[in-house]
């Protein structure tokens, strides 16, 4: 007598595999946008944190000097025992950077060596980068208003030397 044995095959059918793939695709469609939103939130938080650091440094400078950085020239020479930072004229981005990142005297002249005359600061190690534009450059305003309506400015930050106002620029 011949007896036939039914052969049991183990595995998944094509329909089962397709259902699993569809479920994974639906989950990916839900999860992936959440990651991009998290990236945008992290960028925004970094910009806000760096903006706050610049504002705080400017306020400390104002408390010690009676005016905001960049209002006066930051020129000095090697007579202070440090590096020559000449060329940092009043109301320039170089003056703002020098006065926030180097030691300064009561008049805002800067030096990279601290002594009895250059006893103020530094207020920042370096100008932080704007995470939106990936730039730490400074656009200087001297009008008492940041006037962003005209646009077209690129860089990291716009700083007003009259009011101490600071905004993050959004154009690289």
Report on the structure:
This protein has two helices and five strands, in the order H-H-E-E-E-E-E. The chain has about 170 residues and is mainly alpha-helical. It has a domain at about 55-170. The strands form two sheets. Strands 3-4-5 form a three-stranded mixed beta sheet, covered by helices on one side. Strands 1-2 form a two-stranded antiparallel sheet. A hairpin with a 5-residue loop joins strand 1 and strand 2. The longest helix is centred in the N-terminal third of the chain and has 52 residues, at about 15-65. The relative contact order is 0.13.
How would the blueprint of this fold be written?
Layout: H1 14-65, H2 93-101, E1 103-104, E2 110-111, E3 138-141, E4 157-160, E5 166-168
Parallel strand pairs: 3-4
Antiparallel strand pairs: 1-2, 4-5
Largest sheet: 3 strands, mixed
Strand content: 5-15%
Task: Return residue spans where pLDDT drops below 50 for at least 5 consecutive residues.
Answer: none
Let me know the number of strands. Answer: 5
Apparent shape: elongated
Rounded to the nearest angstrom, the radius of gyration is 29 Å
Order of helices and strands: HHEEEEE
Fraction of residues in H or I helices: 25-40%
């Amino acid at each position: 007598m011949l007896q036939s044995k039914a052969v049991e095959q183990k595995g998944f059918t094509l329909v089962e595999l397709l259902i699993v793939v569809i479920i994974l695709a639906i989950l990916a469609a839900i999860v992936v946008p959440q990651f991009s939103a998290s990236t945008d939130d992290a960028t925004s938080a970094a910009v806000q944190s760096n903006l706050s650091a610049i504002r705080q440094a400017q306020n400390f400078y104002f408390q010690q000097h009676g005016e905001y950085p960049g209002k006066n020239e930051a020129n000095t020479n090697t007579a202070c025992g440090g590096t020559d930072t000449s060329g940092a004229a009043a109301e320039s981005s170089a003056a703002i950077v020098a006065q926030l990142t180097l030691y300064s005297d009561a008049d805002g002249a800067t030096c990279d060596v601290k002594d009895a005359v250059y006893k103020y600061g530094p207020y920042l190690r370096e100008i932080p980068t704007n995470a939106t534009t990936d730039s730490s450059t400074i656009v200087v305003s001297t009008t008492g208003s940041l006037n962003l309506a005209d646009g077209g400015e690129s860089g990291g930050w716009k700083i007003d030397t009259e009011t101490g106002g600071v905004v993050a620029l959004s154009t690289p």
